[in-house]
Structure formats: structure tokens, C-alpha cells
Amino acid sequence: MNTQNVFLLMGSNLGIPTDNLKAASKKIEDQIGKIVAYSGVYETSAWGKTDQPNYLNQALQIETKLAPQQLLQEIHAIEKAMGRLRIEKWEARLIDIDIMYFDGLIIQSENLIVPHPLLAQRRFALVPLVEISDQFVHPVFRKTNQQLLDECSDPLEVNLIKG
Question: What pLDDT does 88 receive?
């Protein structure tokens, strides 16, 4: 398979989140592909289930030769190796790695939907994505990341803590 351009979003709100993001980045580079861009690290309140610690989030742009399902399997393996348990939706977590975009593909399978179905509603995902690729066009909405952020009604503040 040719090299694919992928955007990931990592999040952590348990343990030492900055260390978790660094460790996940290292594992991504070792197991998945080359990281070509990192956003800063942003802090935001929890989204969905709000009675938990704030999250730190970071977007990555990677190049990988993995197919979408293989990429998802590797991401799940990294999360599991780092101690992620999947018990409840939107629960606190040591690490969460989501595929935001896989090139310009639209994927709808039982266990993978790309672009991420809630991306346009989540300021905590759009802000770091805009930092590393403001002009990338969402293949469903046909709008750039910057346009999606400009139109996003999510009220949660997203604060840069580490550039």
C-alpha cells in the first residue's frame, strides 16, 4: 500500500497526561508510521461526560503504509499496552487515540467511521487540527478545518498549555 496521510487526535486525563501523550507519540512512531506534524498540547474540560478531570489533547499528522483497519488495530494495541480499559463511553482514560482523517477517504464500517463523526462538533479536536493543517478539507462537509472551527458551536474553552 502507498503511504497514506492520516490525522490522529490523542487525549489523556488520568495519570500524568503529558507523559501519556509523549509515550503514545513514541509508540505511534515505532509501530504505525512517521509523525510529520505535532500540534501543541491543549487543555479542555471533559466533553460528553463532564464529571471527570480536564483533558489534554494533541493532534498528530502521520504518514503510514497501514490500511485503515490495520491502523485501528495498531491504535487499539497501543491504547491497551498503555493501560486503557474500555468500560464506559466517554470515561476518563490514560490514553485515547482517534482517527480524525485518513487521507481524503470516507469510511463507514462496523468498527470504524472516518472522518470522525463528531469532529465538527468538538472544539478540542478542531483547534489542534487547525494548528497543524488549517486548510485540510473534510471529505464529507467539503469545508476546511478552519471553516469547521469557525462554525463550531461547542462552548468549551480550549487552552494551549504547551506549544
Answer: 63
